[in-house]
Amino acid sequence: MFQHEEIGIGLVGFGILFSFLGVILFFDRGLLALGNIFFLTGVGLLLGWQSMWQLFTKKANLKGSVPFFIGLFLLLSVACSWHNHGTIWIFCALQWLWGSYTGLPISNTYHWLDSAIPIPAVCSVEA
User: Which residue ranges run through the membrane (predicted)?
Assistant: First the structure.
């Protein structure tokens, strides 16, 4: 295992820890933002930046990557105070992005969210 992969595992762990603490502490914006930044950096170091970019831009994964970036924008934007909504969007998007690795039937679990995302290019993509 290379050194950058070990650092990536640590950053993913810190990202999950900070996100968990942010949810436990009533959606604390700072902890949630740090958790997402650590998590994305750790995934980038584990998979490689090119593979991570392909994961988010693959046509089959658009249904998860668009809500992820919308949630990340809601979480990190200073102007709006919808960080709890952004967190929910991010968690649902992560289920779509990494649901195939965990074996969860995502299309059956979150079928109600298809109507909540009125983006035709995203809704027409099969999960």
Answer: 7-27, 33-56, 68-98
Distances in Å between the Cα of 54 and the Cα atoms of 19, 61, 62 are: 24, 9, 11
- Mean pLDDT of the region 64-69: 90
Q: Is the dihedral of CA 77, 83, 86, 90 positive or negative?
A: positive
Contact indicator for 18, 28 with CB cutoff of 8 Å: no
Helix (H, G, I), strand (E, B) or coil at 125: coil
Which one, of 123, 125, 52, 64, lies nearest residue 99 by Cα? 64
Q: What is the pLDDT of residue 123?
A: 47
At residue 126, the pLDDT reads 52
What gap in Å lies between CA 84 and CA 10, rounded to an integer? Answer: 25
Report the alpha-carbon distance of residue 120 to residue 62 in Å, rounded.
11
Tokens 């289920």 belong to 95
Measured distance CA(66)–CA(111) in Å, rounded: 16
- Least confident interval from 34-48, 51-65, 70-84, 110-124: 110-124
Residue 62 contacts residue 125 (beta carbons within 8 Å): yes
